[in-house]
Amino acid sequence: MNASQVVEIYTDGSCSPNPGPGGWAALLRYQSKERELSGGEQHTTNNRMELTAAVRALQSLKRPCRVVVYTDSEYLRRGITEWLPGWRRRNWRRKDGALANIDLWQALDAALQEHEIEWRWVRGHTGNIYNERVDRLAKSAIARGK
Fold first, then answer.
1. Catalytic residues
2. Contact, 121 vs 72, CB < 8 A?
């Protein structure tokens, strides 16, 4: 596949306060098309919203794709790129006990299977226009839910 056949996904999650009302957002970019997704929950955490954004974005894809996911969440990026294989080997447990957000990690793991995905971390709030856009969308989702 060439670069024009890659779906770019920017994700973000937010919670105010943490825990409390939360919002998530994703921006999917493919060629010249864009699609925004967002939603929220009344009682949640920032980490759950970060995971939800990635899950919902990947679940929205209609066929297997090459995907680049951009996130400002180290929890999400490291969970997928470093910790996930160990959790699978240990039957969805951490070395020292229960795995937080297991439902979302398992949903994300299932969503990963159909796609070729590259995960890229971006520093939040540093002027990346797409990261700033999903941040605004996630915060708007909180406001809509209050």
1. 12-13, 50, 72, 125, 135
2. yes
**Structure tokens belonging to residue 26:** 């994703």
pLDDT at residue 4 in the model: 54
Please state whether the peptide bond connecting residue 19 to the residue before it is cis, i.e. omega within 30 degrees of 0. Answer: yes
For the packed helices 46-59 and 129-145, what is the interaxial angle rounded to 10 degrees?
A: 110
Distance between CA atoms of 37 and 42, rounded to whole angstroms?
A: 18
Question: Domain count of the chain?
Answer: 1
For residue 65, what are the contacts with CB-CB under 8 A and spacing of at least 6? 5, 6, 7, 115, 116
Q: In sequence order, what E strands does the chain have?
A: 6-15, 20-30, 33-44, 66-71, 93-94, 97-98, 116-121
Mean pLDDT of residues grouped by 10 in the chain (146 residues)? 77 96 98 96 97 98 96 96 95 93 97 95 90 97 87
Tell me the CATH number at 106: 3.30.420.10
Domain span including residue 9: 3-145
Q: How many residues does the chain have?
A: 146
